[in-house]
Amino acid sequence: MYQKRFRLLQGEVPWPAARWIDGTAYHCYYGDPSAMTRLHNEFPAKDIYFTECSGSQSSDPANTFSDTLKWHARNLIVGNTRNWAKTVINWNLALDDSNGPHNGGCGTCTGVVTVGDDGSVTRNAEFYTLGHLARFVRPGAVRVASTSFGATGWNGRVMDVAFVNPDGSTVLVAHNENDNPQAFAVQYGGRTFEYTLPGGGLATFVWRGQSGDRPTAPTGWTATASPATDAALAVDDDASTRWTTNAGQQPGQFLQVDLGRAQPLGRIVFDTGADVGDFPRGYTITASADGRRWWTAASSTAGQFTRADLRGRTVRQIRITLTVPDGNWWSVADVRAYRA
Questions:
Q1: Which of 248, 249, 286, 306 is the most exposed place for a label (fewest CB within 10 A)?
Q2: Measured between alpha carbons, how far is 299 from 308 in angstroms, rounded to an integer?
Q3: Which helix (H) or strand (E) holds 244?
Q4: Is the pLDDT reported for residue 5 higher than 60?
Q5: Is there a contact between 217 and 339 (Cβ–Cβ < 8 Å)?
Q6: Full-prediction pTM beyond 0.70?
Q7: Residue 208: CB atoms within 10 Å
Q8: Would the pLDDT of 4 be above 60?
Q9: For residue range 319-337, what is the model confidence (pLDDT) as tens digits?
Q10: How many Cα atoms sit within 13 Å of 239 on the Cβ side?
């Protein structure tokens, strides 16, 4: 119960008791996983655990597997882990053909597996959704930042979560919320690959090798823009939202990001998000450590990812300004700054 338990800890537990509390457990039966991030932001030193959720029979039993897989992929596998949960636990582990035995409670909840009277075992959707984490994300792994365009409330986009294992391998779990196939691209350490997920599909990718290619957390970032629409959507760490010009590209349109403090950076990346045609056709990127003295960063070719090499210089403000008109809108769904 995401929201209910958040209110309980924040509103009813006396502050002096905080030192006796290790963390908070959540269930899935009410609210949204984002409540866990709100709690984390209030108490970043406390752990968050997700300890219970069950699938449920659909009104049409033929859809129970697909409905459960999609909902659990969005909310448990990706949604919970992107919102600071250290565990994902399903309830129940095994049930019979009648979804029992149970002493009252839910008579339509499904198990991770179903055990028939003849001893046969059927692997349900929960078995496979859990497997995308349990089989590939090893004990001691840490979640790392990744750009996700989907939302737990469903917006038809691909959503994802990424981890680095103790051996240095990277694990990316991606889910296509839409019924139709969707192509997406992954960029990591200067290399890219592309993949097309079938409708409703859930897939896990693992690659070896270590990289120091880690974005800085966008905590405390602010943004201004022209046109003066909601520039904050470009730096809210949520690629399912975007800042956009709402009109064709014109020279002088800009987006400026303040990182909150001066810091040495290796590069900056402006991501157009799911609207891959909304990239700038011509631009300059300038940077400053104090907001007064600006220098021009070396810019690469534009596309979904508009990048500039900051060469390890100390930066606080970064501005991208359009120089070429075009009929397409300009949008920025996500801004990432990478350490030097």
A1: 248
A2: 4
A3: strand 243-249
A4: no
A5: no
A6: yes
A7: 9
A8: no
A9: 999 999 999 999 999 999 9
A10: 25
Angle at which helices 34-42 and 2-12 cross, to 10°: 20
In a 10 Å sphere around its CB, with 0-12 CB exposed, 13-18 middle and 19+ buried, how is residue 245 labelled?
buried
Q: What is the mean pLDDT of residues 169-185?
A: 93
Measured CA to CA, the distance from residue 190 to residue 305 in angstroms comes to 12
Domains and CATH numbers, the chain: 1-135 (3.20.20.80), 137-214 (2.60.40.1180), 222-339 (2.60.120.260)
Q: Looking at beta carbons, which pairs linking 157-163 to residues 24 or more positions away fall under 8 Å?
A: 157/182, 157/240, 157/274, 158/182, 158/184, 158/197, 159/74, 159/78, 159/79, 159/240, 160/78, 161/77, 161/78, 161/81, 161/82, 163/81, 163/137
Per-residue DSSP letter, 44 = T
Vertex 56 angle, CA 51 and 61, to 5°: 155
Task: Give residue 25's pLDDT.
Answer: 96
* Inter-residue contact 302 to 281 (CB < 8 Å): yes
- Helices in the chain by DSSP H: which ranges? 2-12, 34-42, 64-72, 81-82, 125-134
Q: What is the mean pLDDT of residues 34-49?
A: 92
76, 129 contact by CB (below 8 A): yes
A 10 A CB-CB count for 148 gives: 22
Full DSSP string of 110-152: E-SEEE-TTS-EEE-HHHHHHHHHHTTS-TT-EEE-------T
Indicate the SS3 state at residue 25: strand
d(CA 126, CA 151): 20
Mean pLDDT taken over the chain: 90
Residue 212 pLDDT: 64
Q: What are phi and psi of 61, to 5 degrees?
A: -55, -25
Which amino acid belongs to residue 136?
F
Plot region of 77 (φ>0 → left; ψ -120 to 50 → alpha; else → beta): alpha
Q: Provide the token pair at 168.
A: 């240095």
